[in-house]
Design goal:
Structural class: mainly alpha
Oligomer: single chain
Radius of gyration: 20 Å
Order of helices and strands: HHHHHHHHHHHHHH
Number of helices: 14
Distance between the termini: 43 Å
Number of strands: 0
Length: 256
């Protein structure tokens, strides 16, 4: 390995160390308590070295959220490449997102913070561009499912929305429910039921509204639990040890 390659590897390794440390500090102290000086101190680097990698805390947070996105992409690929019906693949995409939320809620809390106007606008154009590029593969996977559904007749011919626009509907449902769940006490389960069970019911109603075949009885709890169990087993296998009841449970309160 030449000097240039070794230097590039060292820079990349140091950057990953900064991000790992930031993630640890967020989990320990909370997102709002993260400080660049603490990251530098914990990694035994001068704060100037840290700023050579990330021009601001906002750039570091965007980079961390971008890195965390890779886990979502791997699960989305498994859902999209599965040979099941197109409608069930859309359900599998939602379940992949739900699995990540259940297992790594701090990743969603970070993304929620990063996408806020105050952080996103303060980050550099380059870091924002990298974050948007990191999301493109997931969007392409969802678009591919929609395109296949149109081609095989699962969606009605001449559907009014292009694939990329149709995919925003399920995404909005998932993103919105995650945001609501994070506000402790906002969703009263005695009135609304389990939020993520409700999310999947809304998703079934939405897909029915699209005319996405085969239509489902969105109010049938037994059928919904059976669908979730079957899709999880088929797509994620041993990587999804959670039962439908586990997946529907609300995560613990946010650690700010």
């Amino acid at each position: 390995m030449g000097t240039r390659e070794r230097r590039q590897r060292d820079v990349a390794d140091r950057e990953q160390r900064f991000l790992d440390t930031a993630q640890d500090l967020i989990q320990r102290d909370g997102l709002l308590n993260l400080q660049m000086a603490r990251i530098a101190e914990a990694t035994d680097y001068a704060i100037g070295t840290l700023y050579q990698h990330f021009a601001s805390k906002e750039d570091l947070l965007v980079a961390l959220a971008t890195r965390n996105h890779l886990g979502r992409q791997a699960l989305f690929e498994r859902a999209a490449r599965w040979k099941g019906p197109t409608r069930e693949r859309m359900i599998a995409i939602a379940l992949a997102d739900l699995m990540l939320m259940r297992e790594q809620p701090e990743h969603f809390r970070l993304e929620q913070f990063v996408w806020s106007d105050v952080v996103w606008r303060a980050a550099s154009a380059d870091s924002r561009a990298r974050a948007l590029a990191a999301g493109e593969p997931c969007c392409a996977l969802v678009d591919g499912i929609v395109e296949e559904a149109l081609a095989c007749g699962d969606l009605p011919p001449g559907f009014a929305l292009p694939p990329i626009a149709l995919g925003i509907g399920p995404w909005s449902l998932c993103l919105g429910m995650h945001a609501l769940v994070q506000v402790e006490g906002l969703i009263d389960e005695t009135r609304f039921g389990e939020p993520y069970r409700l999310l999947l019911k809304h998703l079934q109603y939405l897909l029915n509204g699209y005319g996405w075949q085969p239509l489902a009885d969105a109010g049938d709890d037994i059928a919904l639990a059976a669908l979730v169990d079957r899709v999880c087993r088929a797509v994620f296998g041993g990587d999804c040890p959670l039962t439908p009841s586990d997946l529907f449970k609300t995560p613990g309160p946010s650690h700010g």
